[in-house]
Amino acid sequence: CHTMQFADTLVIFDTGSGMTDLGDELMKPYLMPGKTMADVEFFMSQYFAKGLEAGKIGLALINEGILGKRNGLKVYVVHSHLHGDHLYGLQAFKPIFLPTTEIHFISATHDDMNSVEVLKNMVFAHPVFPVKWDWLASKRTHQLVHPGEWFEIPCSIGGPIKVFCLPMNHPNQAYGFRFVWGGKTIAITMDHEHGHDHDRHILELWNGADIVVTEAQYSNHQYANCKGFGHISEDAVGEHARDAQPGRVITTHHDPGSDFGTVRDIARTIERISGVRTEFACQGTWF
Predict the structure, then answer these.
(1) How is the beta sheet containing 151-153 ordered, strand by strand?
(2) Chain-centre distance of CA 5, in angstroms?
(3) pLDDT of 53
(4) Rounded to an integer, what distance in angstroms lies between the CA atom of residue 107 and that of residue 102?
(5) What is the pLDDT of residue 200?
C-alpha cells in the first residue's frame, strides 16, 4: 500500500495490509470532537454482533454521533495486479464502508478480469468476507486502462496527473506505472522479475524519474532459490537503476524471510551498482 498526494488529490497504489493504518488515519478528520478510532472499532464490533445490516453501518456511525456529516473522502486506487497480498487489505479500509466516501478504482485487465470484478466476486463476497461488495455504502467507480496509453487522474491544482502503464513479468499479469505531475515523475513497479523482454518496460518507466518505488524482494542469495517466482534480485534492480538513472530509488515488497540487515544490504547493493541514492521503505515511511 503506497500513497501519493498530488495537491488535493490522493492516489493509493495497491491495497495490501497498510490499508488498515491508512484508513484509520484518513478517518480522523471526520471524527466528532472527543471521539477516537477506538470508538469506531467498538461501535462496529457491537453493530456486527447484533447482526444489523452491513450496508448501513456508515450511516449508523454518523447517526450515533461518532462521525460528522461533513463532505467525505475522495481517493483514487490504482492496482498493479490482483494477487491477494496487494488486494485484501481493502477489507480493513474503514472509509469504504462510509456513504461519504468516493473511491475511483483504476486497473488494466488481469486474466481478462479488472480489479472491481475481482473485488466484487472474490474479496467482498461470501464466504471470503461477511460484507458483500453491493452492501458497501461508499460510492465506487472503475476506470479500465490499457498498456502504453496515457490517461489522466483529475487534480484541481496544477492540472491533471498524467499516467501510463506497461506490462511487467509476473504471473497472471502485473503492470508498472509512471505518474507525471507538476514537473515531477514517480515510477512504481511492483511485482516483476528480470531477464525477460519486459525489462525494457522497466527502463522506460524508470527513465529519468524523480523517484522510483520498486519491489526488490530478493538478495542474490535468495534469488538463487526463487528463480521464476516473479520477483527481482538486488543486482538486477541495481543494473536497471544504473541504466535508467532516476533521482532516487525506494525499495519495497521485502521478502517475509528477510531481516532488517538483509533489507538494508539490498538497498546498499543497489546504490553501489547504480550510483543512485537508494532507501528502503517500511510501514509509515514518508518520502
Answers:
(1) 151-153, 161-168, 174-181, 184-189, 211-215, 249-252, 278-280
(2) 13
(3) 84
(4) 16
(5) 96
In this prediction, residue 124 carries a pLDDT of 96
Predicted confidence at residue 72, as pLDDT, reads: 79
18: its cell numbers: 497498510
Query: What's the Cα-to-Cα distance from 11 to each of 101, 160, 211, 274, rounded to whole Å?
Result: 14, 12, 16, 29
pLDDT at res. 151: 97
Q: What is the DSSP string of 129-187?
A: -SS-GGG--SEEEEEE--TT--EEE--SSSSPEEEEEEEESSTT-EEEEEEEETTEEEE
**For residue 279, what is its C-alpha cell?**
532507501
Task: Transcribe the chain into DSSP letters.
Answer: -EEEEETTEEEEE--STTHHHHHHHHHGGGBPTT--HHHHHHHHHHHHHTT--GGGHHHHHHHTTSB--S---EEEEE-S---GGGTGGGGG-GGGG-TT-EEEEEE--BTTB-HHHHIIIIISSTTT-SS-GGG--SEEEEEE--TT--EEE--SSSSPEEEEEEEESSTT-EEEEEEEETTEEEEEE-S--SSSTTHHHHHHHHTT-SEEEEE--B-HHHHHTTTTSS--BHHHHHHHHHHH--S-EEEE---TT--HHHHHHHHHHHHHHH-S-EEE--TT---
Quote the pLDDT of residue 105: 98
For residue 38, what is its C-alpha cell? 477506538
Q: Which regions in the chain score pLDDT beneath 70?
A: 69-70
Per-residue cell: 157: 491544482
pLDDT value for 54: 79
> pLDDT tens-digit profile of 196-228?
989 999 999 999 999 999 999 999 999 999 999
